[in-house]
Amino acid sequence: MSLLRRVLQKHQSIPSLLGLQLRMMASDAEKGSSSYAYSTLKVSQASDKVLHVELNRPEKLNAMNLALWREMVECFNEIAGDSECNAVVLSGAGKAFTAGIDLMELGGALLQPPGDDVARRAWNLRKNIVGAQESFTVIEKCSKPVIAAIHGPCIGAGVDMISACDIRYCTQDAWFQVKEVDMGLAADVGTLQRLPKIIGNQSLVNELCFTSRKMMSDEAKNCGLVGRVFPDKESMLQGAFDLASDIASKSPVAVQSTKINLVYSRNHSVSESLQYVATWNMSMLQTDDILKSVQAAMEKKKTKDVTFSKL
Ligand SMILES: CC/C=C\C=C\CC(=O)SCCNC(=O)CCNC(=O)[C@H](O)C(C)(C)COP(=O)(O)OP(=O)(O)OC[C@H]1O[C@@H](n2cnc3c(N)ncnc32)[C@H](O)[C@@H]1OP(=O)(O)O
């Protein structure tokens, strides 16, 4: 039976979904005591101070169900507070990066929020949307650089997700699709806000968003959506891990301050951003990391040979 047919059938049993509210910010209590234990995300240590987060619903092409939206928030909040982690690689298990929102599970809950009248339903719908936005904004709020490693399809919410990452690598077989218009809606969890700042070609962004046409990896590279294209998943992951490892070896004060200021500057004027970094660095320039880094450079050593305190 086609996916679309099953989605439509599922929507006919809306009453079972009426009580269901998207809870995008789950409490830590649900997770138990073990660290990085998630049902839809697999987190592993790729190398020293580098974590590998995999979207882990390969049998559903990593379609984003309720648990995945919630666990993204939990996971990246956990990473943000983990002083053993300095950089992250985000990829998809199986044959796709992601097929976007889980049409079976989320479509009904999203379109039919609970509420006694239109105002209350709208109120709850807004809460769901804001909650879903947090699932990707949390990547941006996490001060550790996040490298998206994309292979195969990256559809709908997948584009929202990778737009919140700091660096994007992909495979030759990767393709990108801002699918929302073809689903009858405007994208609302980050693509329309972040993609224009990444690609820097408003005409192309508009075309992609209005038409839902697929963009293949070569075009993604040419327009600046991805930094590098690799022949296959294995070489892409190796490239992403090497990059993450290089970043992770540097002063975490310098790297994380840089991410925070890059994100701030993207959203503010040059003059506001200069003010911000001046205030930021009035404390951060007092770090021991400067002395250590300069000394290493003078001795022609790599930052890998320097021991920086955890942050
Ligand atoms: C608050 C709102 C926030 C966000 C909104 C976001 C909007 C979007 O994300 S829009 C994009 C929605 N996604 C799609 O339209 C993609 C749908 N999938 C496909 O078109 C195809 O699966 C494919 C990606 C082209 C790959 O095709 P193929 O290689 O032939 O695999 P399939 O047999 O189709 O799929 C394998 C398996 O995965 C299930 N699946 C695929 N996509 C989804 C999905 N989006 N949701 C749920 N399940 C999905 C598919 O049903 C198959 O499962 P089986 O159990 O094996 O049948």
UniProtKB/TrEMBL annotation:
CDD domains: crotonase-like. Pfam families: ECH_1 (PF00378). Gene3D superfamilies: 2-enoyl-CoA Hydratase, Chain A, domain 1 (3.90.226.10), Lyase 2-enoyl-coa Hydratase, Chain A, domain 2 (1.10.12.10). It catalyses: (3E,5Z)-octadienoyl-CoA = (2E,4E)-octadienoyl-CoA; (3E,5Z,8Z,11Z,14Z)-eicosapentaenoyl-CoA = (2E,4E,8Z,11Z,14Z)-eicosapentaenoyl-CoA. InterPro entries: ClpP/crotonase-like_dom_sf (IPR029045), Ech1-like (IPR045002), Enoyl-CoA_hyd/isom_CS (IPR018376), Enoyl-CoA_hydra/iso (IPR001753), Enoyl-CoA_hydra_C (IPR014748). Its main location: other. One of its GO terms (molecular function) is delta(3,5)-delta(2,4)-dienoyl-CoA isomerase activity. Transmembrane segments: none annotated. GO terms for biological process: fatty acid beta-oxidation. It is found in: Peroxisome. Belongs to the enoyl-CoA hydratase/isomerase family. Isomerization of 3-trans,5-cis-dienoyl-CoA to 2-trans,4-trans-dienoyl-CoA. This is Delta(3,5)-Delta(2,4)-dienoyl-CoA isomerase, mitochondrial. The gene is ECH1.
